[in-house]
Fold this sequence. Notes:
The structure holds 2 protein chains of 2 kinds. Chain A is α+β, with helices and mostly antiparallel strands. Chain A is built from 12 helices and 14 strands. The longest helix of chain A has about 40 residues, at about 250-290.
Amino acid sequence: MSRRRWFFHVVIRSLAHRKGGTLLLVTVLAMASSLVTSLGIVSFSMEKKVAEEIRRYGANLVIVADSAGVEVGSGGMNFGRVAESAYLDQGQVQRALLQEPAAGRDLSFHLRGALKLWGDTVAVDGVVFPQIRRLSPWWRIQGTWPDANGALIGSDLALRRSIKPGDALSLSGPAGGMVVRVTGIVSTGGEADRLVFLDLLALQKALGLQGQLTAVKILAAATGEDLRRLAGNLQKLLGGAQVKEVRQVAATSESLLKKVQLLMLLVAAVVVTACGASVAATMSSSVLERGREIGLIKAMGASRRAVLLLFTAESVLLGIIGGVAGYGAGYAIALLVTKTVFATAAEFLPAFFPAAVVVSCFLALVGSTGPLIAVYRLDPVRSLRGE
Amino acid sequence: MPVESGTCIIETAGLTKRYGDICALAPLDLQVSEGEWLTVMGHSGSGKSTLLNLLGGLDRPTAGRLLVGGEDLLAFSEDHLARFRREAVGIIFQQHHLIPYLTALENVMMAQYFHSVPDQAEARQALERVGLGKRLANRPGELSGGEQQRVCIARAIINSPKLLLGDELTGNLDHKSTRLVMELLKELHEEEHFTLVLVTHNQEVAGWGGRTLFMDDGKLVKDLRHERKGDDPS
C-alpha cells in the first residue's frame, strides 16, 4: 500500500471510529458554512431583486439643456420640473456619452414639443422606440410597440380623444406635418399618459429642430458615489447642459439593502466565531482523549511534523465534509427564505460551493490551531503514562 | 542507525535524569553489548523505566553521556531523535498501547508507515510469526491481553530494530501467557540477534536473560551476569 493511500486510510478510520465527535464537528462546521452560504445566496438574490425593482423606477440620470423645461419622473413618480425651454445638441450628447462608457446603453433621447391634432394642441414626445422600451419596462402597452412610422398614445389622452390602436393621426407642426398610425396605448400612471409618443426624427423634422433634444434619460449601472462621479464627468463634457441625479427612492432602497447586508454579515461573523470556539473545544477534548495514541505514534518514531500532518488532515477532511453538507443545507435555507420572505426563487450560485468549503476548512483549521500546537508539543513519555 | 556487529551497542557515562529536585536516575555508567539480553529489575520508582525511556530516545537525560550504536543521543534534535526511534528501536509496552480503531494487521503496518512503506504481506508474516495469523482482522478490543501483547511484539520487531525495549511487558499477563510471550521473545532474539532490554518486577522474567541489573532509588545496586534459564524457566 502506498504511503499516501495508507495515510488517508488511517485518517478515515480514525474519524469513523470517533463517530460522536466526528458528527458533532461536522454538524458545527456545516452549521457555519450553511449560514454563510444561505446568507450569501439570500444577499445576492436580494441585491438582484432590489436591482430589478430599482430598474423599474427608470432613469437615474437626466440631461437637460440649461434652461430646458422638462418634467423629470418615471414609474408614476414626478420629481419636478427641471428648467425652461432650450435644446441639447444631439451630436454633442452622443460624443459625450461615447467618452463615458459607464453611462451604458440604457438611455433614451427625448424631444418634447407640441403639435396640432384635429385643430387642438397636444403635447408630444419624440423618442427612439427601442430605447424607451428598454428603459421603461414597467410601461403597460395595449396594442404593440410602434416602429418609426407609428405612434403610442398615453391612456388619458386616448380616452379623452377616443383614440384606439389602428387609428391614423394627422399631426402638424411649424415645419411640417405627418400622418402616423397608432399601434398602442400606453399606461404609466404618470405624465406619459397625457402624451403622444412619436419617432424622434419625424418630430425633429415636424418641429424644425433637427439634431435637437430636450432631454436624455440614462439608466446607468452605477450607484452612490459612482453615479455622482459619472454625473460630474458628463457635466464637464456638456457645458450648456445640466446633468442631474433622479434616484431618491432608489438610493433609499440601496441604502436599506446595504444595512441589511451589513446586519447579515455581522450575524454570520458572530455565528462563525461561535462555531470556531465550539470546534476548538471539541478538538481540544479529542486531543486530550487521544493523548496516549499521540504518545504512541511519537514513540514509534513519527516526527512532530508527521503527527501534525495526520491531525491537520483530519481537520481538513472534517472541514470538507462540513462544507459540502453546509452548502446543501445553506442552499435549502436560502430557497426557503427567498420564497417565503421575497416571494422569489433563490439564485443557484455554484460559486458559493467553494466558498462554503473554504469557510468550513478555515474554521476547522483555526479551531484546531490550539489543539494542534498541543499535539506538536506533546511529550510521548508523559502521554503514554496518561498524564 | 550505524550499529557495528560485536560491539558495545549501549554506553552510558554519568547518565542522570532529574525531575526538579527528584533524582529519577543517579549517574549511571553502563555498557551493553550487541545482541545481549539485559533485564532491569527494581521496585516502583527505582528508575528502571526512566532508564528505558532514555535508552529508547523517548526522554532526554539531565546530564551524562548516552551512546546508542555509537551515536550520542544528547546531540540529537527532536526530529533526529524521532528518526532514531523509528529506525533503531522497537518498544513493547505493558499496556500494549495499540491503536483502537485499527486491526491487528493495521497496527503493525502503522509502524511500517512511519519507518518506510506499509507492506501488508510483511506485516501479515510478522503476525503469523507471533502466532496471530488468524487474528489479523481483529481490533485490539477483540483480542485477549496475551494476544494484544503479541501484536505489540510484532509491531516492535517489524522494522528489524537493533534495540528492543520492553517495559513490564508481562505485567498484565497471567503465568501461561507470560511464558508464551517469553518463549516467543527468546525465539525472536535468537533469530534476529537484536539487543533486548526488559524492565520488570518479575523474577521469572529476569531468568530468561543473561544479565540482570538491580536498581533502587534511581541507583544501580547490582549488575549480575547469570546463566540463561530460557530453556526451562519454570
